[in-house]
Amino acid sequence: PVTDGSQELHSICSQMEFLLQFDLKEKRSFFGQRKNYWDFLYQGLARCRQEHEGIRFVTSLDKLKTPLGRGRAFLRYCLVHRQLAESLQFCLLNLESLCEWYYARSPFLSPQPRAEILGSLYELDGITFHLDL
């Protein structure tokens, strides 16, 4: 299993963050705080008919104060529960939302790279992650 001390974990999370932040449009909240990929994921998963357990878990953690911290916690939660590919796929289904959050160079806006990314993430479902959440 992959643990918190595994180099592979840091590589996976870094690459995931890079993909989620690449060509992300700059958006700001009502109070001027810059939004990031956590806000994209949160909004995309809010469309679920039932609340996503990962979103519920992350928003319940009082010590997480920044969107980046929430995003990282969400990625870890999804790895442990083998939900990363499915969660991201749900967020990528709405092309209008994708265009609202990402510029044209984002790999999420091109069908072939998006399919390759999701395919790789579904392969991660076969790996066991034992992480401190």
UniProtKB/TrEMBL annotation:
The keyword Zinc-finger applies. Keywords: Autophagy, Coiled coil, Cytoplasmic vesicle, Lysosome, Metal-binding, Zinc, Zinc-finger. One of its GO terms (biological process) is positive regulation of autophagosome maturation. Residues 3-133 form the RUN domain. One of its GO terms (molecular function) is zinc ion binding. Its main location: cytoplasm. It is found in: Cytoplasmic vesicle, Autophagosome; Lysosome. Transmembrane segments: none annotated. InterPro entries: Run_dom, Run_dom_sf. GO terms for cellular component: autophagosome; late endosome; lysosome. The keyword Nuclease does not apply. ARL8 effector that promotes the coupling of endolysosomes to dynein-dynactin for retrograde transport along microtubules. Acts by binding both GTP-bound ARL8 and dynein-dynactin. In nonneuronal cells, promotes concentration of endolysosomes in the juxtanuclear area. In hippocampal neurons, drives retrograde transport of endolysosomes from the axon to the soma. Positive regulator of macroautophagy in dendritic cells. Increases autophagic flux, probably by stimulating both autophagosome formation and facilitating tethering with lysosomes. This is RUN and FYVE domain-containing protein 4. It comes from Bucco capensis.
